[in-house]
Amino acid sequence: MFMPREPIVNHLAANPLDRTAVQRRNVDWVNGVLADPHTRYVAVANGQNLVTMDKPAQAVFLCGQEAVHLGKRAGSRTVLGAYDGVYYVAINMDEPKQAGEAVALSGGRYMDLKKVGPAMDPAHAATLAYANAMTFWHRRHRFCGACGTKTAVSQAGHVRRCPGCNVSHFPRTDGAIIVLIIHGDRCLLARQAEWPKGVYATVAGFLEPGESLEGCVQREVKEETGLTIDKMIYHSSQPWPFPGSIMVGFHAHSADTELHLSDEELEDARWFTREELEREVAEGSVLLPHKISISYRLIEDWLNRSFAESS
Ligand SMILES: [Zn+2]
What we know:
Elements: H1 27-35, E1 40-45, E2 48-52, H2 64-70, E3 77-83, E4 86-92, E5 102-103, E6 108-111, H3 113-116, H4 122-140, E7 152-154, E8 159-161, E9 168-169, E10 174-183, E11 186-191, E12 203-206, H5 213-225, E13 229-240, E14 245-254, E15 268-273, H6 274-283, H7 294-303
Parallel strand pairs: 1-4, 10-14
Antiparallel strand pairs: 1-2, 2-6, 3-4, 5-6, 7-8, 8-9, 10-11, 10-12, 11-15, 13-14
């Protein structure tokens, strides 16, 4: 039976902007947004976001004059959308900035959103993440993949058109699955060798072309652990634009429990009851992933039995 429930909003998923998807096709409307003195600019340089020097850092939204001053060599501009009557535009500074270096006049510095985002206003962090994704895509798609001609920005930065072969190129997002494997009253957590000592988390992997998300869950779990998934349920998703992914989260039931860590990606994997996991976390012998990660949410909802289908 279909059981309605509130959508789970993960870190970086709380984007409040109206994406103005219909209006952005109109060139006059786009020019009006860029000429509007209330429009604010979200600066990105080399994948880093402009934030204040405060602790915790806050997002810096530039006015038009500041954006022009800072972005003399600026690249693409993308109208991200509107909130409370104000338009937000991502601007690709594309200048070599050292992380943490103060940026004159803006009162900010460029920082890695993965580091400063967790302490920020969730709506601001999500807006910066969206700007990251768009500016990265522009940087990587300056030329047509079909004929090699230089592409031109269209539809307020949401399309790049090729004047050579008339193809439209759209922003891409790479799908990845992330899954908490469950059998009876235990869940499986695994660790990769390069992770900090003691950290255990869920299994994850990239979706391949021609593959369903469900098929990807079954393949990744089989490749990494040797287990066979016979049931699964969608949990939630998390944009991860570093540079352009979305993590699609599941709880999945394994038909068996015997592990074969075959593809050398995992250093270790262990089955935990709720009591074992809570005790080991309390003792410090097991560390869970960061609380803002979808991996943590998948584990937390199983521990708390707060995800209806996880018991
Ligand atoms: Zn082309």
